[in-house]
């Protein structure tokens, strides 16, 4: 398929969202978010430096909910236990996901002013139901079976191309390439432009950049470029026979074919960030965790039948999206705390997945863990990740194809984590490949 948008940004040389933010804060240190409350875990440095675990452990030991009266994102409740998060997610009428009430991230509505993007994960019933049903057929067991061979072939070819005896960045070479390619196939997206999906995903998924008012225009420009590109794809698909790609599904759905431009952009952001950041960060997290816990890597090498459970355990251990947000639609009591209408509740999935009440020795990777499937990285209830099966399939195939090639991956250089409170993962992971 030919390139469609000649005015697209040259993403190979354009600075990423992260680079723009870092440069801005260097020049304007006064814009650096200030955090004073000990339980204000919206601060991105604790994730960048990988020192968030004891803070959440201390909160869990004291109770499932903790109020933070002041933060760069306004006041909010930390919901930190597995049980409490499931309880909140099981009451979608009482605890709203709607963008009209604040949406699904810790951001304040005024921080998103002019950039509010309705998407079905940030909608309540009944609208959520119709739009989710539109894209759900792309992720059925039947579709997963159909895609298995293609994913396996692409994964195998990429692993075979990796250099031996030299250090390279696993994030860029493997994690981004595999997940961006998968997204391109799902959208029927021009293959030569697939890295645009990564570029847009980073701009859309960075909550911290949205707090810097001076960068709002740049962020909006990037998102509008994304919308314009996809609008042309939409117009092209509308002239063609219906296909299995997500854009065709939207065009032929009464629930989605009348979306206004912002709603269209919002659902694109959801599908791109949901399909890109999450799987790509777990693909990197698996490698880092196996290197940190060599006994578990040895188990994987000796017992490939553990791979399906290892996938669940690695998702639990990594937790690629740190949080989701809900807003109370009325006054209520929750685990002994008085919640007021309009209160913001932040569901910390990475805390739920390290909850000692459910997971023994939760800070350790254990690919034999019997209840690894109880991880909450995909959420819970009506908003559970619609693409969970596809993420699991990609991760399982990656491990199977690595095992087939007796591939062992060592961390051999720089490790740089994402500096963010929403997306939780790796920006760089320098590795070397050997054999076992």
UniProtKB/TrEMBL annotation:
GO terms for molecular function: heme binding; iron ion binding; monooxygenase activity; oxidoreductase activity, acting on paired donors, with incorporation or reduction of molecular oxygen. Keywords: Heme, Iron, Metal-binding, Monooxygenase, Oxidoreductase. Gene3D superfamilies: Cytochrome P450. InterPro entries: Cyt_P450, Cyt_P450_B, Cyt_P450_CS, Cyt_P450_sf. SUPFAM superfamilies: Cytochrome P450 (SSF48264). Signal peptide: none annotated. It holds the Pfam family p450. Cytochromes P450 are a group of heme-thiolate monooxygenases. They oxidize a variety of structurally unrelated compounds, including steroids, fatty acids, and xenobiotics. This is Cytochrome P450. It comes from Pontixanthobacter aestiaquae.
């Amino acid at each position: 398929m030919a390139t469609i948008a000649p005015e697209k940004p040259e993403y190979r040389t354009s600075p990423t969202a992260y680079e723009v933010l870092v440069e801005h804060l260097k020049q304007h240190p006064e814009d650096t978010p200030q955090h004073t409350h000990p339980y204000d875990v919206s601060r991105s440095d604790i994730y960048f430096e990988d020192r968030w675990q004891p803070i959440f452990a201390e909160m869990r030991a004291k109770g499932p909910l903790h109020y933070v009266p002041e933060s760069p994102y306004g006041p909010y409740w930390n919901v930190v236990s597995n049980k409490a998060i499931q309880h909140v997610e099981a009451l979608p009428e009482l605890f709203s996901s709607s963008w009209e009430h604040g949406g699904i991230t810790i951001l304040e509505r005024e921080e998103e002013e002019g950039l509010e993007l309705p998407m079905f994960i940030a909608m309540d019933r009944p609208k959520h139901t119709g739009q989710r049903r539109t894209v759900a057929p792309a992720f059925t067991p039947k579709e997963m079976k159909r895609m298995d061979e293609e994913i396996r072939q692409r994964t195998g070819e990429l692993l075979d191309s990796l250099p031996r005896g030299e250090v390279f960045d696993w994030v860029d070479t493997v994690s981004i390439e595999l997940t961006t390619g998968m997204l391109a196939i799902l959208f029927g997206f021009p293959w030569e432009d697939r890295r645009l999906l990564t570029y847009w995903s980073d701009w859309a998924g960075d909550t911290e950049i949205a707090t810097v008012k001076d960068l709002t225009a740049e962020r909006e420009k990037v998102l509008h470029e994304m919308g314009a590109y996809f609008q042309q794809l939409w117009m092209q698909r509308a002239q063609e026979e219906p296909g299995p790609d997500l854009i065709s599904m939207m065009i032929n759905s009464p629930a989605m074919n009348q979306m206004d431009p912002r709603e269209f952009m919002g659902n694109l952001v959801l599908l791109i960030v949901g399909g890109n950041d999450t799987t790509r960060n777990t693909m990197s997290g698996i490698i880092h965790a196996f290197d940190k816990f060599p006994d578990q890597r040895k188990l994987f090498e000796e017992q490939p039948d553990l791979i399906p459970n290892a996938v669940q355990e690695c998702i639990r251990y990594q937790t690629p999206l740190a949080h989701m947000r809900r807003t109370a639609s009325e006054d209520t009591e929750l685990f002994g705390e008085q919640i007021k209408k309009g209160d913001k509740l932040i569901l910390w999935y990475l805390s739920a997945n390290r909850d000692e009440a459910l997971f023994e020795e939760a800070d350790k990777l254990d690919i034999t863990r019997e209840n690894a499937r109880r991880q909450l990285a995909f959420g819970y209830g009506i908003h559970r990740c619609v693409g969970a099966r596809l993420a699991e399939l990609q991760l399982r195939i990656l491990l199977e194809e690595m095992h087939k090639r007796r591939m062992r991956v060592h961390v051999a250089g720089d490790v740089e984590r994402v500096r963010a409170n929403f997306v939780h993962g790796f920006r760089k992971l320098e590795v070397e490949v050997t054999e076992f």
